[in-house]
Amino acid sequence: MASGSAGNKGFEPAPSGARVPGATPAAPRHFRWIVALVSIAAAIGLAEAMVRVSLFHTTLEFASQDPEYYARSLDELWIYRHLFSGAKSWTVGVPGAQASNETSIEFYRKWAASLTPDPELGYVRAPDIRTPCHETTNLATRGAGEASWVGPKIVFVGDSFVESAACSNDTLPTKVQKLTGIDTLNFGVGGYGVDQMFLYFKRLAPRCDRKDCSRFPCSPASSPNTAIS
User: Fold this and answer.
1) pLDDT tens track for 81-98
2) Where are the domains positioned within the chain?
3) Burial zone of 182 (CB within 10 Å; 0-12 exposed, 13-18 middle, 19+ buried)
4) In Å, how far are 37, 45, 92 from 33, measured between CA atoms?
Protein backbone atom coordinates (compact mmCIF):
# COMPACT_ATOMS: atom_id res chain seq x y z
CA MET A 1 0.00 0.00 0.00
CA ALA A 2 2.81 2.33 0.88
CA SER A 3 4.59 1.74 -2.38
CA GLY A 4 1.32 2.28 -4.31
CA SER A 5 0.73 5.57 -2.59
CA ALA A 6 4.21 6.68 -3.32
CA GLY A 7 3.80 5.75 -6.97
CA ASN A 8 0.64 7.90 -7.39
CA LYS A 9 2.30 11.08 -6.24
CA GLY A 10 3.38 11.90 -9.79
CA PHE A 11 -0.24 12.00 -11.01
CA GLU A 12 -1.70 14.44 -8.50
CA PRO A 13 -3.96 17.14 -10.18
CA ALA A 14 -2.55 20.63 -10.52
CA PRO A 15 -3.72 23.16 -7.94
CA SER A 16 -6.71 25.33 -8.95
CA GLY A 17 -5.64 28.35 -11.05
CA ALA A 18 -2.26 26.88 -11.88
CA ARG A 19 -1.21 26.85 -15.53
CA VAL A 20 -0.81 23.45 -17.09
CA PRO A 21 2.37 23.23 -19.16
CA GLY A 22 1.61 23.23 -22.90
CA ALA A 23 -2.04 24.35 -22.51
CA THR A 24 -3.42 27.43 -24.36
CA PRO A 25 -4.54 30.16 -21.91
CA ALA A 26 -8.27 31.01 -22.03
CA ALA A 27 -9.22 34.53 -23.23
CA PRO A 28 -10.34 36.89 -20.47
CA ARG A 29 -14.12 37.17 -20.15
CA HIS A 30 -14.15 40.94 -20.71
CA PHE A 31 -12.24 40.49 -24.00
CA ARG A 32 -14.92 38.11 -25.29
CA TRP A 33 -17.63 40.68 -24.45
CA ILE A 34 -15.75 43.36 -26.36
CA VAL A 35 -15.47 41.11 -29.42
CA ALA A 36 -19.19 40.32 -29.25
CA LEU A 37 -20.19 44.00 -28.98
CA VAL A 38 -17.89 45.02 -31.85
CA SER A 39 -19.36 42.25 -34.01
CA ILE A 40 -22.93 43.39 -33.28
CA ALA A 41 -22.05 47.04 -34.02
CA ALA A 42 -20.38 46.04 -37.30
CA ALA A 43 -23.41 43.97 -38.33
CA ILE A 44 -25.80 46.86 -37.58
CA GLY A 45 -23.56 49.30 -39.48
CA LEU A 46 -23.39 46.98 -42.49
CA ALA A 47 -27.18 46.50 -42.47
CA GLU A 48 -27.79 50.26 -42.33
CA ALA A 49 -25.33 50.84 -45.17
CA MET A 50 -27.14 48.28 -47.31
CA VAL A 51 -30.51 49.91 -46.58
CA ARG A 52 -29.16 53.37 -47.46
CA VAL A 53 -27.69 52.11 -50.72
CA SER A 54 -30.93 50.34 -51.66
CA LEU A 55 -32.96 53.51 -50.94
CA PHE A 56 -30.82 56.38 -52.16
CA HIS A 57 -27.80 55.25 -54.20
CA THR A 58 -28.87 52.71 -56.77
CA THR A 59 -30.62 52.70 -60.12
CA LEU A 60 -32.16 49.31 -59.30
CA GLU A 61 -35.75 49.22 -58.11
CA PHE A 62 -36.52 47.72 -54.69
CA ALA A 63 -39.81 47.37 -52.85
CA SER A 64 -38.30 49.40 -49.99
CA GLN A 65 -38.26 52.45 -52.30
CA ASP A 66 -42.05 52.65 -52.42
CA PRO A 67 -42.83 55.99 -50.68
CA GLU A 68 -46.32 54.79 -49.75
CA TYR A 69 -44.71 52.61 -47.08
CA TYR A 70 -43.50 55.70 -45.21
CA ALA A 71 -45.59 58.72 -46.23
CA ARG A 72 -48.35 59.87 -43.88
CA SER A 73 -49.60 62.63 -46.17
CA LEU A 74 -49.47 63.77 -49.79
CA ASP A 75 -46.69 66.22 -48.94
CA GLU A 76 -44.53 63.47 -47.44
CA LEU A 77 -45.30 61.27 -50.45
CA TRP A 78 -43.74 63.86 -52.78
CA ILE A 79 -40.75 64.32 -50.46
CA TYR A 80 -40.01 60.59 -50.16
CA ARG A 81 -40.59 60.05 -53.87
CA HIS A 82 -37.88 62.62 -54.57
CA LEU A 83 -35.46 61.38 -51.92
CA PHE A 84 -35.72 57.78 -53.11
CA SER A 85 -34.91 58.82 -56.67
CA GLY A 86 -31.56 60.37 -55.75
CA ALA A 87 -29.72 58.35 -58.41
CA LYS A 88 -32.10 59.52 -61.14
CA SER A 89 -32.61 62.82 -62.92
CA TRP A 90 -35.54 64.73 -61.40
CA THR A 91 -36.74 67.88 -63.09
CA VAL A 92 -39.71 70.19 -62.96
CA GLY A 93 -41.02 71.45 -66.27
CA VAL A 94 -42.16 70.25 -69.66
CA PRO A 95 -41.40 66.52 -70.17
CA GLY A 96 -38.59 66.03 -72.64
CA ALA A 97 -37.49 69.66 -72.51
CA GLN A 98 -33.94 70.58 -71.62
CA ALA A 99 -33.91 71.36 -67.91
CA SER A 100 -32.37 74.64 -66.82
CA ASN A 101 -30.42 75.32 -63.66
CA GLU A 102 -33.59 76.84 -62.25
CA THR A 103 -35.64 73.64 -62.43
CA SER A 104 -33.05 70.85 -62.16
CA ILE A 105 -32.90 71.05 -58.36
CA GLU A 106 -33.06 69.09 -55.16
CA PHE A 107 -35.58 71.40 -53.55
CA TYR A 108 -36.53 69.39 -50.50
CA ARG A 109 -32.97 68.69 -49.42
CA LYS A 110 -32.70 72.34 -48.31
CA TRP A 111 -36.41 72.87 -47.82
CA ALA A 112 -36.07 74.20 -44.25
CA ALA A 113 -33.59 76.90 -45.32
CA SER A 114 -36.40 79.41 -45.85
CA LEU A 115 -38.59 78.48 -42.88
CA THR A 116 -38.86 79.99 -39.41
CA PRO A 117 -40.87 78.97 -36.29
CA ASP A 118 -44.29 80.52 -35.74
CA PRO A 119 -46.23 80.27 -32.43
CA GLU A 120 -49.61 79.91 -34.13
CA LEU A 121 -48.88 78.01 -37.35
CA GLY A 122 -45.83 76.01 -36.26
CA TYR A 123 -43.66 77.42 -39.04
CA VAL A 124 -43.89 79.99 -41.81
CA ARG A 125 -41.65 81.22 -44.58
CA ALA A 126 -38.93 83.61 -43.40
CA PRO A 127 -38.36 86.95 -45.18
CA ASP A 128 -35.26 88.00 -47.12
CA ILE A 129 -33.74 84.54 -47.69
CA ARG A 130 -31.07 84.46 -50.40
CA THR A 131 -30.33 80.73 -50.58
CA PRO A 132 -30.43 79.76 -54.31
CA CYS A 133 -33.83 78.36 -55.33
CA HIS A 134 -35.23 79.16 -51.87
CA GLU A 135 -35.23 82.96 -52.14
CA THR A 136 -37.96 84.86 -50.31
CA THR A 137 -39.10 88.47 -50.54
CA ASN A 138 -39.34 91.06 -47.81
CA LEU A 139 -42.99 89.95 -47.35
CA ALA A 140 -41.90 86.34 -46.69
CA THR A 141 -43.30 85.09 -50.00
CA ARG A 142 -41.44 82.81 -52.41
CA GLY A 143 -39.65 84.91 -54.97
CA ALA A 144 -36.52 86.92 -55.63
CA GLY A 145 -36.43 90.68 -55.11
CA GLU A 146 -38.78 93.02 -53.30
CA ALA A 147 -42.54 92.57 -52.99
CA SER A 148 -45.29 95.00 -52.06
CA TRP A 149 -48.99 95.01 -51.15
CA VAL A 150 -49.49 98.13 -53.28
CA GLY A 151 -51.34 97.73 -56.59
CA PRO A 152 -53.32 94.85 -58.10
CA LYS A 153 -52.41 91.50 -56.52
CA ILE A 154 -53.25 87.82 -56.68
CA VAL A 155 -52.45 86.23 -53.30
CA PHE A 156 -51.93 82.46 -53.07
CA VAL A 157 -52.14 80.62 -49.75
CA GLY A 158 -51.76 76.84 -49.56
CA ASP A 159 -49.49 73.85 -49.06
CA SER A 160 -46.78 72.31 -51.26
CA PHE A 161 -48.99 72.50 -54.35
CA VAL A 162 -48.77 76.30 -54.12
CA GLU A 163 -45.25 76.35 -52.71
CA SER A 164 -44.04 74.32 -55.73
CA ALA A 165 -40.95 72.09 -55.81
CA ALA A 166 -39.15 74.49 -58.11
CA CYS A 167 -36.98 77.55 -57.77
CA SER A 168 -38.64 80.65 -56.39
CA ASN A 169 -38.99 82.29 -59.80
CA ASP A 170 -40.50 79.19 -61.45
CA THR A 171 -43.46 78.38 -59.16
CA LEU A 172 -47.14 78.08 -60.07
CA PRO A 173 -47.98 81.63 -58.86
CA THR A 174 -45.06 83.00 -60.87
CA LYS A 175 -46.41 81.31 -64.00
CA VAL A 176 -49.84 82.82 -63.28
CA GLN A 177 -48.19 86.23 -62.99
CA LYS A 178 -46.52 85.78 -66.39
CA LEU A 179 -49.82 84.74 -67.96
CA THR A 180 -51.99 87.48 -66.43
CA GLY A 181 -49.55 90.33 -66.00
CA ILE A 182 -50.84 90.77 -62.43
CA ASP A 183 -48.39 90.67 -59.56
CA THR A 184 -48.70 87.49 -57.45
CA LEU A 185 -47.70 86.73 -53.86
CA ASN A 186 -46.88 83.11 -53.04
CA PHE A 187 -47.57 82.34 -49.35
CA GLY A 188 -47.70 78.58 -49.93
CA VAL A 189 -45.91 76.45 -47.32
CA GLY A 190 -45.35 72.71 -47.79
CA GLY A 191 -46.85 70.42 -45.17
CA TYR A 192 -49.64 72.79 -44.17
CA GLY A 193 -53.00 71.29 -43.27
CA VAL A 194 -56.36 72.90 -43.92
CA ASP A 195 -56.36 74.44 -40.44
CA GLN A 196 -52.97 76.11 -40.95
CA MET A 197 -53.99 77.37 -44.39
CA PHE A 198 -57.18 78.85 -42.96
CA LEU A 199 -55.36 80.60 -40.10
CA TYR A 200 -52.71 81.97 -42.48
CA PHE A 201 -55.41 83.08 -44.91
CA LYS A 202 -57.21 84.81 -42.02
CA ARG A 203 -53.97 86.54 -40.98
CA LEU A 204 -53.30 87.87 -44.48
CA ALA A 205 -56.90 88.76 -45.40
CA PRO A 206 -56.91 92.33 -43.96
CA ARG A 207 -53.94 93.25 -46.19
CA CYS A 208 -55.89 92.15 -49.26
CA ASP A 209 -59.34 93.48 -48.39
CA ARG A 210 -59.89 95.54 -51.53
CA LYS A 211 -61.27 95.12 -55.04
CA ASP A 212 -57.93 94.85 -56.84
CA CYS A 213 -56.62 92.05 -54.62
CA SER A 214 -57.75 88.44 -55.15
CA ARG A 215 -57.07 85.74 -52.57
CA PHE A 216 -56.70 82.10 -53.55
CA PRO A 217 -56.41 79.49 -50.76
CA CYS A 218 -55.50 76.25 -52.55
CA SER A 219 -55.60 72.78 -51.07
CA PRO A 220 -55.91 69.13 -52.13
CA ALA A 221 -58.99 69.12 -49.88
CA SER A 222 -60.76 71.09 -52.64
CA SER A 223 -60.49 68.10 -54.94
CA PRO A 224 -58.48 68.31 -57.12
CA ASN A 225 -56.46 71.39 -56.06
CA THR A 226 -59.25 73.85 -56.73
CA ALA A 227 -58.82 77.49 -55.86
CA ILE A 228 -61.49 79.15 -53.74
CA SER A 229 -61.70 82.93 -53.88
Assistant:
1) 666 665 444 444 444 444
2) 31-65, 104-218
3) middle
4) 6, 18, 53
